[in-house]
Amino acid sequence: MFRRERSIPLRSSAAALSNNLSVLQLPARDLTHFGVVHGPSAQLLSAAPEGVPLAQRQLHVKEGAGVSPPLITQVHWCVLPFRVLLVLTSHRGIQMYESDGSVMVYWHALDSGDASSVQAMFARGIAASVHFICVGTCSGRVLVFDIPAKGPNIVLSEELAGHQTPITDIATERAQGQDGVADMVTADDSGVLCVWRSGPEFTLLTRIPGFGVPCPSVQLWQGIVAAGYGNGQVRLYDASTGALHVQISAHARTISALDLAPEVGKLLSAAEDTFVHIWKLNRNPESGSIEVEHCHGECVSDTQVCGVRFCDPLGSSFAVTGYDLAEILRFGTV
Amino acid sequence: MSVRTLPLLFLNLGGEMLYVLDQRLRAQNIPGDKARKVLNDIISTMFNRKFMEELFKPQELYSKKALRTVYDRLAHASIMRLNQASMDKLYDLMTMAFKYQVLLCPRPKDVLLVTFNHLDAIKGFVQDSPTVIHQVDETFRQLSEVYGKLSEGEFQLIRQTLLIFFQDLHIRVSTFLKDKVQNSNGRFVLPVSGPVPWGTEVPGVIRVFSVKGKEVKKMKFRHGGDYVAAQKEGSFELYGDRVLKLGTNMYSASRPVETHMSATSKNAASRAQENIVPNPLAKEELNFLARLMGGMEIKKLSGPEPGFRLNLFTTDEEEEHAALSRPEELSYEVISIQATQDQQRNEELARIMGEFEITEQPENTSKGDDLLAMMDRL
Hints:
Strand order of the largest sheet of chain B: 1-8
Order of helices and strands of chain B: HHHHEHHHHEHEEEEEHHEHHH
InterPro entries (chain B): OSCP1
CATH class of chain A: Mainly Beta
Number of strands of chain B: 8
Structural class of chain A: mainly beta
Order of helices and strands of chain A: EEEEEEEEEEEEEEEEEEEEEEEEEEEE
CATH superfamily of chain A: YVTN repeat-like/Quinoprotein amine dehydrogenase
Pfam family, one (chain B): Oscp1
Number of domains of chain A: 1
Shape of chain A: globular
Radius of gyration of chain A: 18 Å
Number of helices of chain A: 0
Structural class of chain B: mainly alpha
Helix content of chain B: 40-55%
Strand order of the largest sheet of chain A: 1-28-27-26
Helix content of chain A: under 10%
Strand content of chain B: 5-15%
Organism (chain B): Mus spicilegus
Number of helices of chain B: 14
Distance between the termini of chain A: 6 Å
Protein name (chain B): Organic solute carrier partner 1
Largest interface: A-B, 61 and 59 residues
Number of strands of chain A: 28
GO cellular component, one term (chain B): cytoplasm
CATH topology of chain A: Methylamine Dehydrogenase, Chain H
Oligomer: heterodimer
Distance between the termini of chain B: 31 Å
Largest sheet of chain B: 2 strands, parallel
């Protein structure tokens, strides 16, 4: 069903982080942008169809005080109604760039008085929600930035408290049947999930308790929360009630990344066990219960997968990054 | 990343170092009492209380250079001497072994079991010295105290920090190649069969729940691996069955261990970058070394104790050849100090180093024995 296609070489290998691949699809320009974190640097590159690499750029953390060069935790494109920004989170703070990474438009330093010296300090977890960009921190707080249609006048408008352990991932989707409103789910290192509704202020809708295992990756689709856990499970919850509908023993090691193709309801799961799986999500129109079907499994030999993304809206192709791997692997439908 | 990584890194690398030294001492037919003394001296230096205190303070990981310098010092805490080439090979073996162990840990917290495996073996090396055993037990207690209460999320962060430290190291080790745990391109084999980690279910099951939370349907799917359930959990107590084999001694007297230098051009580019950029953090690292080594008590040798040179290779010629043919990008540079700046700190370090008594080797002294000498060389 899927076959390996041409890989895209990277200047440097991918780091063993979660959600370590961001993809920006630009079908109108026949381009795809990829973003991968190496460690102290992140690499952005753009590729033509068939994976032919075009331009590439490296980004670093803005301020470098400390014993060793500060590490980047995540790089992610945020698609907003009027612009696309590239967000980079690190052990120093949050950097936002124009989508090609050429110009930094905003820098937010993490408050060092925040965490004690016993804990590491970092930002992690990035998502766009209407005209906001939300970024998680190691304290568990989620920072909400108000983004103007253009220019650098970005403002920290709110700090959400709902988590006590470091944020791992954030996912958003437009609220069903409502314009200008989005739902958001935030996940943390203890496996707790919070579902929010955005607006002038964010409101907490539901809180789903953890079970002692981190939740490194989370997705949201049609009111379904898809969460990947450190014990290899993928769980599907109803976002409004928080009820667990489906529990999948999907992987033999921790999930490292999830992605969604929202137009078709396909879910991609990747884990440190070298496997990538594709699932079809469905909401039963009568009972309202969540259903899932396994579509495909792929073994990326001897590779601890750390990032995975669909590369087209129909989910017929996807890209994979792995720890120590200096290339982006691509898979397409036969 | 995590500020709790250094003790685990140091102890496990130290454990691997002792495994290799033990094997080489036996292979080179060093008399039993001398060999035991060497290991005893190194182990008692490693587990010195003041040293451990410094190590366990929450701190970021230091550079590979700084860490390598500590092991250079440690390896010379006895009457044994190692040439540069042998020290390089020793460090290669240590790092690749621990990288392998971290990568293959079923759960992130299993790195603690790996550490305990090393400590268990270390106690075996010094079973005739109750004082040293006590030191190791103390460290065990400290590990349990610090890491016993960490969450899975914190262990995952430690794991990620360790893997970032070991990123891009692909030195091929003959034992690993022979055992088929490493591919010929230097990458480790990640098996997709065997027991799942403790706390993980065998993949392949989909459970559907009702609104009330009752399981109403169970389906299977083909996940592609060949996993079985875990039998039991390893013990985190002072004594106990660790279950996990990672971190136990894989060397035996009959298996000579070779490494193959292989560096792809890609690795060379990024590593050359690392070495060319002047290290503005040398001062911080010097501080760290001074504090760490200030706690390292080197036994003063009494009487005309003759030292000896250990060779990690089978012949002297091999060792010489290895020194000459080591690829540029894989050379371990020791800390480069701006000798002109910070006179006071250099004096302080010199004072500390002065407390380390090193037996003068009559003819074979390599200039690299003394840390200051190493610094002067650069």
